[in-house]
């Protein structure tokens, strides 16, 4: 039986590689006992701000067996999204997070995972499973760590030894027994560059991020007016923020992704500050039609640009 389990595991990992995923690891589907009190404390301190969905389905978030009946394994995949070059044309240009340059990663990864699940079902037989990409109550960073793919850094992002932290995460939860990988050790050491660099002090202590203070939260999740107390602290970020990742020494190993869908729209590559300030609904619709930037809608993006512009 052990040999069959090992073969199944190798088959899934090889197929994930063929589909273009950079990493694939496996962990046992079980209750996340260690994370339960941490999540409860984080929520009780209101560190999720207006992200009400973070408090929903608390039990499911901690136990994959409540998401897939009879679940035995969590297969975690990582996909690199580090770009060949950044979109901002000059140092004082407006900036958007690298993850939003191209096609929304939810579409890209979910399609790949659905293909992988179908392949597993074809090759192995009747397997019950579901795929997840950051849109369901799954603690993806924890599963990536438990699957041996990386560790959760002091900025709360997953870091891989091979290519840093600019990676997307997705999961397949299966009622199939597989060979689990061991968890990854933490290699942050005494470094606190991400903590020191955060302009809004969102990393309240190493490994703890107050989501309600993060530039990404203010520019994407917050629907109200951006608080005046953070004026002048955005360093020209108008959608998301990469500061804590950009300063991480492990990202010296980052290398350009191999997924054409993540390339920026041709027009975006040459966007000037004036282009951002004069963006119309038609241009917004064309450039960000399949991008995560759509989440803010044009009025949200204009609010962010105006807030940064008047902070200068």
TrEMBL record:
Cofactor: [4Fe-4S] cluster; cob(II)alamin
Main subcellular location: cytoplasm
UniProt xrefs under SUPFAM superfamilies: alpha-helical ferredoxin (SSF46548)
All copies of domain 4Fe-4S ferredoxin-type, residue ranges: 176-208
PANTHER family given in the database record: EPOXYQUEUOSINE REDUCTASE
Subcellular location: Cytoplasm
Complexes and interactors: Monomer.
Residues reported to bind [4Fe-4S] cluster 2: 198, 214, 241, 244
Pathway(s) of this molecule: tRNA modification; tRNA-queuosine biosynthesis
Keywords on record: 4Fe-4S, Cobalamin, Cobalt, Cytoplasm, Iron, Iron-sulfur, Metal-binding, Oxidoreductase, Queuosine biosynthesis, tRNA processing
Family indicated by similarity: Belongs to the QueG family.
Broad class of enzyme this protein falls into: oxidoreductase
Protein name (record): Epoxyqueuosine reductase
Active site positions: 134 (proton donor)
Lineage: Bacteria, Pseudomonadati, Bacteroidota, Cytophagia, Cytophagales
Cofactor binding remark: Binds 2 [4Fe-4S] clusters per monomer.
Binding site for tRNA: 223
Residues that, per the record, bind [4Fe-4S] cluster 1: 188, 191, 194, 248
Binding site for cob(II)alamin: 61, 134, 158, 169, 216, 241-242
């Amino acid at each position: 039986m052990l040999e069959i389990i090992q073969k199944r595991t190798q088959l899934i990992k090889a197929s994930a590689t063929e589909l273009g995923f950079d990493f694939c690891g496996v962990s046992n589907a079980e209750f996340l006992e260690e994370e339960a009190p941490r999540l409860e404390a984080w929520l009780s301190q209101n560190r999720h701000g207006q992200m009400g969905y973070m408090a929903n389905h608390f039990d499911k978030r901690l136990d994959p067996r409540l998401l897939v009946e009879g679940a035995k394994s969590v297969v975690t995949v990582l996909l690199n999204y580090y770009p060949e070059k950044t979109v901002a044309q000059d140092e004082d240009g407006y900036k958007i997070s690298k993850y939003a340059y191209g096609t929304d990663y939810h579409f890209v990864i979910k399609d790949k995972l659905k293909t992988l699940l179908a392949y597993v079902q074809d090759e192995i037989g009747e397997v019950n499973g579901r795929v997840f990409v950051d849109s369901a109550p799954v603690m993806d960073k924890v599963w990536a760590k438990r699957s041996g793919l990386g560790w959760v850094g002091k900025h709360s992002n997953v870091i891989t030894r091979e290519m840093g932290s600019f990676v997307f995460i997705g999961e397949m939860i299966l009622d199939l027994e597989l060979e689990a990988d061991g968890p990854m050790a933490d290699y942050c050491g005494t470094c606190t560059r991400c903590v020191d660099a955060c302009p809004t002090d969102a990393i309240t202590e190493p490994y703890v991020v107050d989501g309600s203070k993060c530039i990404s939260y203010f520019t994407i999740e917050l629907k109200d007016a951006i608080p005046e107390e953070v004026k002048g602290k955005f360093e020209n970020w108008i959608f998301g923020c990469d500061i804590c990742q950009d300063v991480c020494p492990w990202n010296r190993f980052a290398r350009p992704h191999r997924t054409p869908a993540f390339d920026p729209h041709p027009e975006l590559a040459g966007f000037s500050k004036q282009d951002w300030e004069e963006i119309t609904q038609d241009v917004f619709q064309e450039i960000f039609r399949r991008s995560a930037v759509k989440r803010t809608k044009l009025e949200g993006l204009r609010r962010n640009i105006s807030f940064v512009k008047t902070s200068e």
